[in-house]
Specification:
The complex is a heterodimer of chains A (425) and B (370). Chain A is an alpha+beta fold and 425 residues long. Helices cover 43% and strands 12% of the residues of chain A. Chain A has three domains: 14-96, no CATH class; 133-241, Butyryl-CoA Dehydrogenase, subunit A, domain 2, CATH 2.40.110; 261-403, Butyryl-CoA Dehydrogenase, subunit A, domain 3, CATH 1.20.140. The chains are: A alpha+beta (425), B alpha+beta (370).
Chain lengths: 425, 370
């Protein structure tokens, strides 16, 4: 029997830890004194703080950390990006503006891989400077889980595309001045093959943005109405009619940088929850205690899975369908721990008081007061996690069909898209 | 930074899985479990002499290979997947207790036999009134000159009816901080009555052990037994992960193969989504078990929290998966001939051993200071 030397090791290498110290020093130097997180910044001052903070990040090469330096990015290694994301999460400091996840994270990386030299030269500096603020135009009223069913049409008219249709759930659309969108350019092709990925300016008469109020009372996403909106013929990423492939590739540019940050952010939330229970004398209640320990367990599972995912990423693997498992774990946990908060609050949840969150997508800003209102808003907002970015039902299809190899359901959507679109409604 | 099994470990897993599929298919597991001993001594000889499994983690001076705990956890995963009946887990736990608490003499006396597979040693720590085995023990140790006499009843003692040596926990004046201490009892000691139990789990023989002024020797110094319980929890979690994988594979294979309404039933979301949930449960349990074993291997103080949480996570995942395996196999899953119930039994036996998820989370809450 040969000797197997265990190699498991969860410590980061010294270079990464040196980089961590530099990030910590940067945060210590540039965050305002007494910083507890964005939640500690008064609501009226958050927008200004974000703008200022983004400028500071830009000046110190802490923005666009995933881009190569030739495009103005920080050119960090994967592990450095991970460390940076961890330290920002621990400090509760934003890594950019609301539009940066679309502009820098999604579009920027897509252009770097699939864009023309002209597109890179034109767009990347403008995304980085903040001159352009981007949003994503994917979902439509008739194309939610079935994203390839987009009906928004784009027709070439001379050297311009003319775009008609409606996008919805457009996060940060009200803050954006540009939208990358999927439009149907060949309705006679099967539905995945007649789509084009277009770059469209929003400051034109044919684009109207209307906010949607979510069930927690906040307007974080929008409807975008496109009525003879125009963009130049060359504003296509990838090939015409090949937008589905571009959209799928875009998902693949996520390199697993945030593998370890969910656990950090949910840990901070768990500390708030423990404090909430403690303040109300409920930690000795056997049922509450059991559920608090359960919450701790789930956050630990996220940490362990994060270490596994990071290990795979460092070995060169791109996040694949197994990210469907992560999505289900965190989004369902988000509902469970906020439901526990509701139970801990009891009657306090029914007429909730204290600081509001200002709206949230996954969890409230770090430093948010441990108020009943913040918990009620977090609880209400947690319903979104199992719906957006692929509902839990779609994630289970992916897990079943891709990871387990179970057969797909018989398809009813073969053939030209034009006929499909007519066959219902 | 590397939180995964390395290539050697994966190759080890693959070859072990092949070995068990060949030598210990479920039909053979059923046969061996039904014998008086409850396992196949021939297979155990191959596992120990040919593969060197029981000594993997033990130091070379005691006849082992000195691997650490990651490889034994792989053995537990694979034997948990195959439901192989053998004294492997019992010996592993006993050896860890000897290493932790035993004097140099005790180690020299017991470890080489465990490493070679010739000496079957097992822990006898569980009592009906003390499932975790740390508090409220009724078994007592009384000094008799140089020696000690034990009286009481232990249950769920793995291979307790055939073991050569039992490590029995008892309370007494010299029992240590948590009120329990381990004692070495020979299988042929006077006043020792051992009866194999009619157990829920058909594939892991357990015994009731009655001691009546049975002579025993203290296993080294008194000490806190809770790290031993934590090690056990971490290793049980590994075994459960293997079982969950077997349940999922069995169910997915059936869902692809079984046609109703002219479609494989796995194409229906009602079935597909349950399989997906089983994989989600497996994935979380595997991560938790892997980390707990890693912490155990490192001797990390984190073990006190990650072991009970891994045990609870794995238990909930396994009982979920085994229950749905029976359900998704339909009528055939409810028969004695089909193997699903063997996993359902093991799932609940593993879940209950050392205390179920609620008991583990209570330990976790204590350790966290909630």
């Amino acid at each position: 029997m040969p000797v197997y030397a265990p190699r498991m090791d969860v410590d980061y290498p010294p270079q990464a830890q040196e980089f961590r110290a530099r990030v910590k020093a940067f945060l210590g130097e540039h965050l305002p004194p007494g910083w507890t997180g964005m939640g500690g910044v008064p609501m009226g001052e958050r927008e200004q703080f974000r703008r200022q903070w983004r400028r500071t990040l830009g000046e110190h090469s802490m923005l666009a950390v995933s881009w190569p330096t030739q495009y103005g990015g920080a050119g960090l290694t994967l592990l450095e990006q991970v460390v940076l994301a961890e330290e920002f999460a621990l400090a509760g400091a934003p890594q950019g503006s609301e539009n940066d996840s679309f502009g820098i994270g999604m579009l920027g990386n897509t252009l770097i891989h699939l864009g023309t030299e002209e597109q890179k030269a034109h767009y990347l500096p403008r995304i980085l400077s903040g001159e352009q603020r981007w949003c994503q135009g994917y979902s439509e009223p008739e194309a939610g889980s079935d994203l390839a069913g987009v009906r928004t049409s784009a027709v070439l008219d001379g050297d311009e595309w003319v775009i008609n249709g409606q996008k919805t759930w457009t996060s940060a659309g009200h803050l954006a001045d540009h939208i990358f969108l999927l439009a149907r350019t060949d309705p006679d092709a099967p539905k995945h093959r007649g789509i084009t990925f277009l770059l469209v300016p929003m400051d034109q008469p044919g684009v109207e943005v209307r906010p949607i109020r979510n069930l927690a009372g906040y307007s974080l996403f929008n409807e975008v109405f496109l009525t003879d909106a125009r963009t130049a013929a060359h504003e296509v990423v990838g090939e015409v009619h090949d937008g589905w492939r571009v959209a799928m590739a875009l998902l693949g540019f996520e390199r697993g940088v945030t593998a370890t940050t969910d656990a950090i952010r949910f840990r901070a939330e768990l500390d708030r929850l423990f404090a909430l229970a403690r303040e109300r004398g409920l930690t000795s209640d056997a049922r509450i205690r059991d559920r608090l320990a359960w919450c701790h367990s789930r956050v630990e599972v996220m940490r362990f899975r994060g270490l596994q995912a990071l290990t795979r990423s460092l070995a060169g693997a791109r996040p694949g369908p197994e990210s469907a498992i992560s999505k289900i774990i965190w989004s369902e946990y988000a509902q469970a721990y906020t439901e526990l908060a509701m139970e801990i609050l009891g009657p306090e949840a029914l007429v909730p008081t204290g600081q509001a969150t200002g709206g949230l997508l996954q969890m409230p800003e770090a430093g948010t007061e441990n108020s009943p209102l913040s918990w009620v808003e977090t609880f209400m907002s947690a319903r979104a996690g199992t719906i957006y970015a692929g509902s839990s039902q779609i994630q289970r299809n992916i897990i079943g069909e891709v990871l387990l190899g179970l057969p797909k359901e018989p398809r009813l959507d073969a053939g030209p898209f034009r006929e499909l679109a007519q066959s219902r409604g | 930074m590397f939180f995964a099994h390395d290539r050697d470990q994966e190759e080890f897993r693959t070859s072990l899985r092949r070995f068990l599929a060949d030598k210990s298919p479920l039909g053979e597991v059923r046969r061996a479990s039904g014998t008086g001993a409850g396992y196949d001594p021939g297979l155990w000889r191959q596992m120990s002499q040919q593969l060197g499994l029981p000594g993997l983690h033990l130091p070379e001076e005691h006849g082992g290979s000195g691997t650490g705990l990651l490889e034994p956890a792989i053995v537990l995963e694979e034997t948990g997947r195959a439901l192989t009946s053998s004294p492997y887990a019992a010996g592993l736990l006993a050896s860890l207790a000897v290493q932790r608490f035993g004097s140099a003499d005790a180690q020299a006396e017991l470890l080489p036999g465990i490493a070679s597979g010739e000496l079957v040693v097992t822990l006898a720590t569980t009592e009906l009134g003390s499932p975790v085995g740390l508090r409220g023990l009724q078994t007592t140790a009384t000094s008799r000159g140089d020696s000690v006499a034990l009286s009481g009843r232990k249950v769920l003692v793995e291979h307790g009816h055939t073991a050569d040596v039992l490590l029995v926990s008892a309370t007494g004046p010299d029992a240590g901080p948590t009120g329990a201490r381990l004692y070495v009892v020979r299988g042929d000691a006077p006043g020792l009555v051992r009866t194999r139990s009619e157990a829920l789990d058909l594939t892991r023989p357990v015994a009731q052990v009655d001691l009546d002024a049975t002579p025993a020797d203290a296993l080294g110094e008194a000490g806190d037994l809770s790290p031993l319980v934590d090690l056990w929890c971490a290793l049980l979690a590994s075994g459960m992960v293997g079982g969950i994988g077997a349940c999922l594979d069995m169910t997915v294979a059936y869902a692809k193969d079984r046609y109703q309404f002219n479609r494989p039933i796995g194409s229906f979301q009602a079935v597909k989504h349950r399989c997906a949930e089983m994989l989600v449960a497996l994935d979380g349990a595997r991560a938790a078990a892997q980390y707990a074993v890693f912490a155990a291997d490192q001797g990390s103080p984190e073990l006190a929290t990650v072991a009970p949480l891994a045990k609870a996570e794995a238990a909930e995942a396994y009982t979920f998966a085994a229950g749905w395996t029976v359900q998704l196999l339909g009528g055939i899953g409810f028969t004695w001939e089909q193997d699903a119930h063997l996993y359902l039994r093991r799932a609940w036996a593993d879940s209950g051993l050392l205390g179920g998820p609620a008991a583990q989370r209570a330990r976790l809450a204590d350790a966290l200071g909630i």
